[in-house]
């Protein structure tokens, strides 16, 4: 495994890291197996944004006794209320769930404390001129967090945050599909076929390029999320380029952006960890993504769910990411719903048929996925 310095944090992180969001809902033994394999293969950085208590506890058990081998990226502003994830700016809730993070993971300090999911101007102003930032800075001053970071999907807001001089690290969504889009575009246009046909988008969007350059100039290290676009880039059918990229190509694309130190790949199994770490032994030819990006036709990714559950809370207690993942699994099969998908769907505590169409999920979703429409489709397919 190769290691890179994560900007002015000074941390030396594996260039392939683990994004833990897909571990939520898995049996504890599977969580242990994934974390074990990651550490065995040299991965030393893990992002844990999830506020769900059990997955935090299981990850804590998985790293017990080897804390010194793991760089933890934990989030300030991710809460678990009424049995669901919620993004919060309430100071008491931020404190409560950051302390819960430390308790459940069995740690006294967190290497990187992330201001969680800031994507628009109003939220930026609320956080950076309010008590949440003061709390985060106090944690850094006391040494409870080693470095201060922020997670975002918006290059304009992210650059504004970097230019404050307060951040050591930025967690940002980087992949080829996102990078050709204008920074001020609504995120739903990331999935609109016509958006990709403009001659002005022949290369990387200037706002995103400027963000990466600004991070490099300010020595703010970037850790990467969504490098595979929740697997959409790995299939001819769902890639906006009309041809699949490989995990190695996606990882290489992100690692060749300025200031990027680590690509955090979401893995659910040890084999998926191995597939990501295969980057380390790949050839230049295997890493080369130019043939796909340079010649492939483009088509729509509209409605593509990233399974991140940023759309929660749901008043009907629907696990929207789980429903979405099972729906997409079913839609990939031309001969009916796979039995395994149907079984897992039935076992969910709430189903698409419980949706009351309040659309709070659509207002919360950073990717503007038409959630209600997808709930209708899931109910049709699964009958619940």
TrEMBL record:
InterPro entries the record matches: 4Fe4S_Fe-S-bd, 4Fe4S_Fe_S_CS, AKR2_Oxidoreductase, NAD(P)_OxRdtase_dom_sf, NADP_OxRdtase_dom
GO molecular function, one term: iron-sulfur cluster binding
Keyword Metal-binding: yes
PROSITE patterns the record matches: 4FE4S_FER_1, 4FE4S_FER_2
Domain of life per record: Bacteria
Record's keyword terms, sorted: Iron, Iron-sulfur, Metal-binding
Segments forming domain 4Fe-4S ferredoxin-type: 346-375
PANTHER family: D-THREO-ALDOSE 1-DEHYDROGENASE, NADP-DEPENDENT OXIDOREDUCTASE DOMAIN-CONTAINING PROTEIN
The protein, known as: Aldo/keto reductase
Species, as recorded: Candidatus Ventrousia excrementavium
């Amino acid at each position: 495994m190769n290691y890179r310095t994560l900007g002015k944090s000074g941390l030396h992180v594996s260039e392939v890291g683990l994004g833990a969001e897909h571990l939520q809902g898995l049996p504890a033994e599977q969580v242990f197996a994934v974390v074990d394999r990651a550490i065995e293969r040299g991965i030393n950085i893990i992002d844990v944004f999830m506020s769900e208590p059990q997955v935090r506890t299981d990850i804590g058990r998985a790293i017990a006794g080897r804390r010194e081998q793991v760089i933890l990226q934990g989030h300030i502003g991710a809460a678990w209320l009424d049995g669901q994830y919620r993004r919060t700016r309430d100071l008491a809730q931020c404190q409560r769930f950051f302390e819960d993070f430390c308790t459940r993971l069995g740690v006294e300090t967190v290497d990187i404390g992330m201001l969680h999911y800031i994507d628009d101007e109003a939220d930026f102003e609320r956080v950076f001129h309010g008590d949440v930032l003061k709390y985060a800075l106090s944690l850094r001053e006391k040494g409870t967090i080693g470095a201060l970071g922020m997670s975002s999907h918006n290059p304009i807001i992210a650059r504004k945050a970097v230019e404050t001089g307060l951040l050591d690290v930025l967690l940002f969504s980087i992949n080829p599909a996102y990078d050709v889009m204008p920074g001020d575009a609504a995120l739903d246009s990331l999935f609109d076929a016509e958006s990709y046909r403009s001659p002005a988008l022949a290369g990387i969007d200037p706002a995103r390029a400027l963000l990466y350059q600004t991070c490099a100039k300010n020595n703010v290290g970037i850790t990467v999320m969504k490098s595979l676009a929740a697997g959409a880039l790995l299939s001819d059918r769902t890639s906006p380029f009309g041809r699949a990229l490989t995990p190695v190509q996606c990882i290489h694309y992100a690692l060749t952006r300025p200031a990027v130190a680590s690509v955090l790949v979401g893995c659910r199994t040890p084999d998926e960890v191995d597939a990501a770490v295969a980057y380390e032994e790949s050839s230049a030819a295997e890493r080369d993504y130019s043939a796909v990006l340079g010649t492939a036709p483009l088509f729509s990714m509209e409605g593509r769910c990233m399974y991140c559950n940023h759309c929660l809370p749901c008043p009907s207690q629907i696990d929207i990411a789980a429903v979405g993942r099972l729906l997409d699994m079913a839609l990939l099969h031309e001969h009916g719903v796979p039995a395994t998908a149907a079984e897992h769907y039935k076992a969910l505590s709430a189903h698409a048929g419980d949706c009351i169409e309040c659309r709070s999920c659509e207002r919360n979703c950073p990717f503007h996925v038409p959630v209600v429409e997808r709930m209708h489709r899931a109910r049709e397919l699964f009958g619940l």
